[in-house]
Amino acid sequence: xxxxxxxxxxxxxxxxxxxxxxxxxxxxxxxxxxxxxxxxxxxxx
Length: 45
What we know:
alpha+beta; 2 strands
């Protein structure tokens, strides 16, 4: 699932917050693997 910022849901666009991604892994191990791969070189908030 993916989405942009939606004004209809009272969301306001701020440069950098306009993308959302939802991932539903089948296990904690898979979740950790995905998180670690996606977060390489990123700023975690």
